[in-house]
């Protein structure tokens, strides 16, 4: 039968969207290829004359300049008579990048599940951060277990179907995983480097995700400290004074504006 004008327009629009996606994908691939090509030229010493101008650290400059003679099809390359370190695209072997490397203060940032903690007062100890982080994620794990158990019960009460049975299996698997994870949860590692930056390294991706979720809430994560932190004590005192003033204003002159000030102060 004849295709309506509306359907023809819809088909043309769909084709246009598909072509735009294809064009964007092609542009992305070309950009990545150009970036890889440029990166390869840099790391094989082709740009060595610009190292000083671009403030390249000497250890990298020396390595990249040494790679330059080995980046072409010369006799040395064909006979494999050169250090593997100087080959194009060389990466450290897995045996070199062990977990022990991440536990060193100098390489704490390289841990795949590491978070950098900013503006942590020096009065706050590393053990205090570790305990607070562990307890917070442990409690969040228990909440996740309760949520998963509730979901399993709700699914059981639903009408029986193939999709419901699949959902029940998935929910039960998640519940069992969370329970087993909660029983063997490990404390994160906390490291402070020479620049006083603190890195929190988690042993599991779930723990890290739970920590980030809690850290971005209004109340954040409480870290009990033995030593009073002057900055925090001062801010708390100021906040209490602002709350007292807002409550007084609302009591004497009750109005929406003063009520908002009181709520904000709380």
Chart the SSEs and their pairings.
Elements: H1 5-43, H2 58-67, H3 75-78, H4 99-102, E1 114-117, H5 126-157, H6 162-183, E2 189-192, E3 198-201, H7 205-215, H8 230-252, H9 256-265
Antiparallel strand pairs: 1-3, 2-3
Instruction: Give the mean pLDDT.
Output: 78
Q: Compute the number of helices.
A: 9
- End-to-end Cα distance: 69 Å
Element-by-element helix/strand order: HHHHEHHEEHHH
Number of strands: 3
Throw out a few tags for this protein:
9 helices; 3 strands; mainly alpha; extended; three-stranded antiparallel β-sheet; 266 residues
Could you please describe the fold and organization of this structure?
The protein has 266 residues and is mainly α. Helix content is 58%, strand content 5%. It is built from nine helices and three strands. It has helices at 5-43, 58-67, 75-78, 99-102, 126-157, 162-183, 205-215, 230-252, 256-265; strands at residues 114-117, 189-192, 198-201. A three-stranded antiparallel sheet has the order 1-3-2, with helices on one face. Strand 2 (189-192) and strand 3 (198-201) form a beta hairpin. Helix 5 (126-157) packs antiparallel against helix 6 (162-183), helix 5 (126-157) packs across helix 7 (205-215) and helix 8 (230-252) runs antiparallel to helix 9 (256-265). The mean pLDDT is 78.
In short:
The protein has helices at 5-43, 58-67, 75-78, 99-102, 126-157, 162-183, 205-215, 230-252, 256-265, and strands spanning 114-117, 189-192, 198-201. With 266 residues, the chain is mainly α.
